[in-house]
Write a structure and sequence with these properties.
- The model has no long low-confidence stretch (mean pLDDT about 90).
- A five-stranded parallel β-sheet has the order 2-6-1-7-8.
- It has a single domain, classed as P-loop containing nucleotide triphosphate hydrolases (Rossmann fold).
- It contains nine helices and eight strands.
- It is of the alpha/beta class and about 240 residues long.
Length: about 240
């Protein structure tokens, strides 16, 4: 779909939060492309920490080992780079983009992200990425914690059944689970993300909610562009 460009677009920070499988990644990439903004997948940062913790072993995952986990985060060198297939995440100079997309790492990332020591370690990194603005940040607490003063905040949601089917299709031949197992994992992750003590998943009070259950990614982007244009007009 060809989108109508926005004239004289100011430098904005736009956040897109929501549960797993709601379509945040696809929509965030499309919106960033239309606006000629940088796209930041903050969930990938937590997945990177989860992958590093998994490699290090039980010592970094114990419930009382925050010191070990803090040191692990401190020593990780995380960097996003644009590649032929899109955004690539490097950890200590190694491309880990594909390694962090397994169901096991997804669930572990949800657990890891509940640890305040991890959230504190990544808070500064994420805010530094937003210093120049002109960015679309995708995550689960972008509009509530990381960028509470973001210019535009969106919360993307969809039914659990639709989210599970999307994730199942996204994983394709690499998926080792049945559709039912994917849905069960999503429900478990929803519960973990929404009930954690540190930065639980929830829409910001001023977030614009969009239900993507029956909408295509392009239709969601159109709704977002309409809201952005409206906000710019009201600002002026």
């Amino acid at each position: 779909m060809k989108f109508t460009p926005i004239n004289l677009l100011p430098k904005l920070i736009i956040t897109i939060d929501g549960p797993a499988g709601a379509g945040k990644t696809t929509v965030s990439k499309k919106l960033a492309e239309v606006l000629d903004y940088q796209y930041i997948d903050t969930g990938a940062l937590y997945r990177a920490v989860a992958l590093a913790a998994q490699k290090k072993g039980p010592a970094s995952l114990g419930s009382n080992d925050d010191q070990v986990l803090a040191e692990l985060c401190r020593n990780l060198q995380l960097e996003f780079k644009s590649g032929p297939k899109g955004l690539v995440l490097f950890c200590d100079g190694i491309d880990i983009t594909d390694k962090i997309r397994t169901p096991e790492i997804s669930m572990l990332a949800s657990t890891i992200s509940a640890r305040p020591v991890v959230r504190k370690a990544l808070l500064g990194l994420q805010r530094k990425m937003g210093e120049k603005k002109q960015a679309v940040f995708e995550g689960r607490d972008m509009g509530t914690v990381i960028f509470p003063d973001a210019d535009l905040k969106f919360f993307l949601e969809a039914s659990c059944a639709v989210r599970a089917l999307r994730r199942f299709k996204e994983l394709g031949d690499t998926c080792t689970q049945t559709l039912k197992e994917v849905e069960e994992d999503i429900l478990q992750r929803d519960n973990q993300d929404s009930t954690r003590g540190a930065a639980p998943l929830k829409p910001a009070k001023d977030a614009i909610k969009i239900d993507s259950t029956v909408l295509s990614a392009d239709q969601v982007v159109e709704k977002m562009l309409f809201s952005i244009k409206k906000a710019i007009i009201n600002e002026n």
